[in-house]
């Protein structure tokens, strides 16, 4: 009885403090800018009700996964097999396992939900990134597709860009996802070994060339790749898939040189997905 009363008093006090804080420092919806109520966090109930969820975490095959795998196969499937229409048994066995892919929301330049990614990447709102990263992580954890992931790797920034920005937006998202999945967060595996141009205004082919061979693996972390069963690569947004594909190739090259006995499934996860058809 007494414990219940104390608990109620503490709850009431917390609500009162939150309401007072909202008066002094009002919070606003990331999407529409409407002032948030005390029970709302980063997004108002109206924008949450119309949230453009992809629901890709429920589907092994979806538009994002198909695009990701198409790029993977074009880079890894033996050229002779594609030209001749068949490959030998060793080549067929070496073909890549289907990589899963999921994003939290559909990203469009003319939709206000793009502000979620923008606020994290350019406005330094790490708390916002954590909130939506956890929203995505909770959904991945509830999916049989991603729940067995044991390693989560954020797409790295070049050290000069990391120094300028002060944080890696992909790592912010990846940390929440790893926590939800109970997986190991490994930001020490991949390195962006050369500085690349921003991908924003490049066409599809230029984006591919811009990041080609831009990533490498730290030699001392290769055993972790070889021991993994399901690796998730994390970035803030998936447009053409060029950046994540290059990260994928760097991991595969390292594992091959190490002569890993098993080939881990490598999947892609981002906050936003640009559906360009």
Give the gist of this structure:
The protein is α/β, with parallel strands linked by helices and 277 residues long. It is built from 12 helices and 7 strands.
What does the radius of gyration come to? Answer: 21 Å
Number of strands: 7
**Derived structural class:** alpha/beta
List low-confidence stretches: 11-19, 79-84, 89-93
Strand content: 5-15%
Order of helices and strands: HHHHHEHHEHHEEHEHEHE
Features:
46% helix, 12 helices, two-stranded antiparallel ribbon, 5-stranded parallel sheet, alpha/beta, single chain, 277 residues
Structure, described:
- The chain has 277 residues and is of the alpha/beta class.
- 46% of the residues lie in helices and 13% in strands.
- It contains twelve helices and seven strands.
- A five-stranded parallel beta sheet has the order 1-7-6-2-3, sandwiched between helices. A two-stranded antiparallel ribbon has the order 4-5.
- Strand 6, helix 12 and strand 7 form a beta-alpha-beta unit.
- Helix 6 packs across helix 7 and helix 7 runs parallel beside helix 9.
- The longest helix is centred in the first third of the chain and has 23 residues.
- It is globular.
- About 7% of the residues have low confidence.
């Amino acid at each position: 009885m007494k414990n219940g009363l104390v608990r109620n008093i503490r709850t009431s006090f917390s609500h009162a403090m939150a309401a007072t804080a909202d008066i002094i420092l009002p919070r606003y919806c990331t999407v529409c800018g409407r002032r948030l109520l005390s029970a709302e966090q980063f997004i108002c109930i109206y924008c949450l009700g119309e949230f453009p969820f992809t629901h890709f975490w429920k589907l092994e095959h979806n538009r994002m996964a198909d695009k990701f795998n198409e790029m993977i196969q074009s880079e890894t499937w033996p050229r002779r097999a594609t030209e001749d229409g068949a490959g030998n048994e060793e080549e067929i066995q070496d073909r890549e396992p289907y990589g899963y892919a999921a994003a939290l929301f559909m990203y469009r330049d003319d939709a206000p939900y793009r502000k979620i990614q923008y606020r994290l990447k350019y406005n330094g709102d790490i708390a916002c990134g954590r909130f939506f990263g956890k929203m995505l992580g909770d959904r991945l954890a509830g999916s049989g597709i991603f729940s067995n992931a044991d390693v989560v790797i954020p797409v790295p920034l070049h050290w000069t860009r990391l120094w300028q920005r002060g944080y890696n937006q992909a790592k912010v998202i990846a940390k929440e996802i790893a926590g939800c999945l109970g997986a190991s967060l490994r930001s020490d595996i991949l390195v962006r070994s050369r500085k690349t141009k921003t991908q924003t205004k490049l066409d599809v082919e230029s984006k591919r060339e811009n990041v080609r061979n831009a990533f490498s693996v730290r030699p001392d972390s290769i055993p972790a790749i070889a021991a993994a069963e399901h690796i998730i690569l994390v970035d803030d947004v998936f447009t053409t898939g060029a950046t994540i594909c290059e990260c994928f190739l760097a991991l595969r090259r390292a594992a091959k040189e190490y002569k890993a006995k098993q080939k881990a499934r490598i999947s892609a996860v981002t906050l936003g997905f640009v559906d360009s058809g």
